Amino acid sequence: MIWAVHSLDALTLLDAVADSICIVDGIWQISYANTHAIAEMARGTGLVGMDLWEAVPGIEGSNFGEVCRRCMADRLPRDVEGYFAPLGNWLSIRAIPLSEGLAVLFRTITPQKQSESALRTSEQRFRAMFDTLGRGILFYDGDGRITDANPAAERILGFGFAEMEGLSSGDARWRAVDEADNFLPANMHPTNLALHTGQRVQNFIMGIFNPILSERRWISVDANPLFGGEGPRPSQVYTVFEDITEKRQAEYELRQSKLHLALAQRVASIGSAAIDFRTGKWDWSDETYRIYGVKRESFTPSAPALASLVHPDDRNELLSKPALARRGVTPPPIEYRIKRPDGAERILRREATLARDDKGKVVGIVGTVQDVTDQRAAQREKYLLETQLHHAQRLDALGTLASGIAHDLNNTLVPVLALSEAVAKSLPKDDTRRPLVELIHQAGERARDLVAQVLAFARPEKPESRTIDVETLLHETMGLVRASIPTSIEIVERINSVSSIFGDAGKLHQVLVNLFANAASAIGVGPGKIEISVAETYAEPLDNPNGNMDFCVIISITDSGCGMDETTQARIFEPFFTTKRVGAGTGLGLSIAHGIVAAHGGHIRVASHPGRGSRFDVILPVAK
Amino acid sequence: MKERVLVIDDDEGVRLTIQYILSMAGHDVRSVCDGEQGIGAFRSFAPDVVITDLIMPGQQGIEIIAAFKKERPEIKIIAMSGGARPGPGNILQSARAAGADDILAKPFEMNLLTDVVRGVLQPRLPSADVLRRSVSP
C-alpha cells in the first residue's frame, strides 16, 4: 500500500537522516526512497514503484536479501553488515518491520571498514612486536596497576601475567631496590613517577627479585605516560625495560678489572704507557704518573714534558726510541734516571713493544715503566756483600791454612832452637864453630817470630781493652814513624781530638807503623807526601762488613805513591801477598794489620788508583 | 834419685830434643809418639812428670791430661803446643783448666824447658812466666 498521507515535514525529516532509507510493501514494491537512497542507487526518482529485487540487482541471494526476507517473514528487526559487490562498497543494513512491509535503512561503511582493517593490522603488528620483543613491556592503568604484560616481561620479572595482573609497581613481591642496592619505596618507582609527574622516566636502573631464577636481576626501565582520558593526569603508563644484569656484571667486572690493574701496577710499582702515532697522543696509567712524581691534572705527557724529567745524560737515548719504533724496530728495554719535581732521583726501567693495526702497520708503542731504584740499590749491596763475603772466606781459608803450617813449623823449630842452644853451650867459648851454631839459633828465632805473626793473622788475639786517646796514639805513632821515613817524603799531620776508642795501643801502633811503611815504600825515593788525618763519623752499613759499628773514628793515611790497581787491592790483605821484590817484604804486614783491626771490631778500607796514590782508612768503633 | 819424665809427642824432632835436653839435665826420660803408648808407659814407667803435646793424631792431649790426673792426681803434667798463642781462650789455657801444672809453647829455648820441668817438680819455687818468655814481641 502506498502511504496515503505524506506530511511534508516527515519527508523532510527522512531526507535529513544520514542513512539511505527505502520502504517496501508486503509484495516488495518500493513505496518510498529518500534522497540518499536514490543517490546511493544512482536510480533517480524512478525507484518508487519498482520491485526491490529488480531495483537493486544482486541483492537477491545476498546476505542483505536474506535479512530482508526473514524480517518480512518473522516481523523481527535485523541488522547485517557486509561487502556488497554490485555496489563495490561495504554496507550496513537494518531491516525494520512496518505494519505492512519493511523499512530498509542502509549506509555505506567502506571508510570505517577500511580504517578498522588498518587498525586491526596495526594492532596485529603491535601485538606481534609486543609478544616477541626482547624488552619487557608492562601496561599500567591510571591507578598504577598492571593491565598487560608481554612474554619478555614475564621472563625478565619471573612472574606470569596472571600473577602480575592488578599488581602495583610498588608491590612488595618485586623486592625492588635502587641502583645502590637500597630499598626502593613505591613512590620512587619509575611507573609511579611517570604517573604522578606525567613525565617520561628514562634509563631508571633498579633491581628486582626474579622468583623463577631465584636471584636478583637488574633492569633498566623507561616509563611512558599515556594521556587518553580526561584531565591532565595520565590515564595509563607503560614501561619498557631490559634485563641488564649481565651487562651490569660485565661493567662491574670491567671496573674491577681496571681497579685490579691499577692496584697491581701500584703494588708492583709498574706503570703502563702508550704512544699512539696516529694521534700523537700519550697515555699514562695512574701508576706511571706516580712513578714520575707528577699529577695527571697538571702534567700532560709528551716528549718535551718527559725530557724535562729525565736525566740529561739519558735523555737522548730514551727519546730516540719512538723514532726507531716508527721504523718497526722494537725498542729494547732501557733504564734511565729521572729527577722528580720533588727532587727525588730514581732509576726507571722501560720495556716496550710495538702496537700494530690490523694490517700490521706500526701505530704506536705500548710499554711498562718500572721504578727499579730499590732493586738496583739492593743488587749493588748484594754484590758488595758477596764480594766482601768472598773476600772474608778467602782470608778465613788462608788463615786456617796458615795456622796449620804454623803448627808444623813450630814443631820443626823445637830442635832448631833448643838444640842449637844446647850445642852452643857445649862448645868452648873460643870455639870457632860457636858463632855458626848461634847463627842457626838466631835463624830459628826469626823463623819463630815469623810463625807467631802468621798466627796473629790466623787467629787474632783479643786485644787488651783499654781506653785509648786517639790523638795521643797518633802522636806516639808519628814519633816512631818519622825517623824511619826518608826526608824526601813530606809528612803532613792533621791530627785533632776525637772520641776515645777501646783497644790495644801497642797493636794499633803496629798497624799504623805498617801502613806508614807501605806508604813510604809506594813513594820510593820520593819526593812525595804522606798525610795522616783523623775524623769521626757515622759508618754506613756498607762500610761495615762486621755489622757492629755506629760512631767510628777513621784514621786515614794517604800517600802520593804509585797506587794500586783493583786486582792488587783485592789481595793486599792476604798473607804472603806482596808487591815488593822477593826478600824485601814478607807479605804479612797488611794481613796482620787486618787481623788486629778486625779484633778491635773495625776494618781497613782502601781507596787507590794506579799512579794516583792510595788512602788507607782504619775504621775503629768509638768507645761506649 | 832421678826424676822420671815421660814425653808424648807425634813429632820425632820434638821428642828427641826434649829427651836430649832433659837427660843432660839429669832426668830419666822416656818418649812415646801417641796417647795410647803414653798410657802404657804412664803405668809401666811410672813417671814423675808427663810432658804431652796437645794436638796429635788419635787421642788428644786434653783427654790424656784428664785421664792421667784421674788415675794419679799427684802426677805433674806439662802441656805443650805449637798451634797456640797466649791469651784467653787458647788451647794451652784449656789444658791448664783441664789440670796441666804448666804449659809450654813451641818452639822453646832449652833453658825454658828445664826451668818449667824444675818448676813443676819444686812447686815452692816461683813459677816461670812461661808465656811471656815463650813469645817474642
Index terms:
heterodimer; A: 624 residues; alpha+beta; Beta-Lactamase; 5 domains; six-stranded antiparallel beta sheet; five-stranded antiparallel beta sheet; 25% strand; rod-shaped; B: 137 residues; alpha/beta; five-stranded parallel beta sheet; 6 helices; 5 strands; 44% helix; disordered C terminus
- The tally of helices of chain B reads 6
Strand proportion of chain A: 25-35%
Strands of the biggest beta sheet of chain B: in what spatial order?
Answer: 2-1-3-4-5
- How many E-type strands of chain A? 23
Helix content of chain A: 40-55%
Global Rg of chain B? 13 Å
Ranges of chain B where pLDDT stays below 50 over 5 or more residues in a row are 125-137
Q: How confident is the prediction overall: mean pLDDT of chain A?
A: 85
Unreliable residue stretches of chain A: none
Helix segment tally of chain A: 19
- Kindly state the percentage of residues in helix of chain B: 40-55%
Structure description:
The complex is a heterodimer of chains A (624) and B (137). With 624 residues, chain A is an alpha+beta fold. Chain A folds into 5 domains: 8-113, PAS domain (Beta-Lactamase, 2-Layer Sandwich), CATH 3.30.450.20; 133-243, Beta-Lactamase, CATH 3.30.450; 251-371, PAS domain (Beta-Lactamase); 377-458, Helix Hairpins (Orthogonal Bundle), CATH 1.10.287.130; 466-621, 2-Layer Sandwich (Heat Shock Protein 90), CATH 3.30.565. In chain A, the strands form 5 sheets. A 6-stranded antiparallel β-sheet of chain A has the order 7-6-11-10-9-8. Chain A has a 5-stranded antiparallel β-sheet with strand order 2-1-5-4-3. A 5-stranded antiparallel β-sheet of chain A has the order 13-12-16-15-14, with helices on both faces. In chain A, a hairpin with a 5-residue loop joins strand 1 and strand 2. Chain A is rod-shaped, with a radius of gyration of 58 Å. Chain A starts with 7 loop residues before the first helix and ends with a strand. The mean pLDDT of chain A is 85. Chain B is α/β, with parallel strands linked by helices. The interface between A and B is medium-sized, with 28 and 30 residues.
